[in-house]
Write a structure and sequence with these properties.
- It is a single chain.
- The chain has 105 residues and is an alpha+beta fold.
- Helix 2 crosses helix 4 and helix 3 crosses helix 4.
- The longest helix has 14 residues.
- It starts with 7 loop residues before the first helix and ends in a 14-residue tail after the last helix.
Length: 105
C-alpha cells in the first residue's frame, strides 16, 4: 500500500522545481517552508542567505532570476528591503486579482 504524504503541496512543489539548479530549488523550498503557498516571507536576503548557508550575492542573483521566471513574486517593500512569496510557477495556481468597478456619485 503506498504511503500518503502529510505535505502533498510540498511534494508537488518538489516535482515542479526538479529541473532548477540546487541553489534555486533550495531557495524556492525555503520560501515555501517560511511563507507557505500564499504568504510573503518578511526576512532580508542576507538573513535568508545565512539560513541557507550561501553568500548573499549568490542568493540575490538567484532570487532575481526566479522572480523573472515566475517562481517568486514581489509582494511589497519596507524601506529598501523587498519581500517575496511563491509565484505561479511554484504554486501551480494562477493568481487572479479581483478588480473593483469604479462607482461614480
Amino acid at each position: 500500500m503506498p504511503a500518503t504524504s502529510s505535505y502533498p503541496e510540498l511534494e508537488a512543489l518538489q516535482a515542479r522545481i526538479s529541473s532548477l539548479s540546487h541553489l534555486k530549488q533550495n531557495l524556492v523550498m525555503t520560501y515555501a517552508i517560511l511563507g507557505g503557498l500564499e504568504h510573503s516571507v518578511e526576512r532580508t536576503a542576507a538573513t535568508l542567505a545565512g539560513l541557507m548557508g550561501v553568500p548573499a550575492p549568490h542568493f540575490s542573483r538567484a532570487r532575481r532570476e526566479l522572480e523573472k521566471d515566475g517562481w517568486l513574486e514581489y509582494t511589497h517593500h519596507e524601506g529598501q528591503v523587498r519581500f517575496y512569496r511563491l509565484g505561479e510557477m511554484a504554486t501551480g495556481r494562477e493568481v487572479v486579482v479581483q478588480l473593483r468597478s469604479r462607482t461614480t456619485a
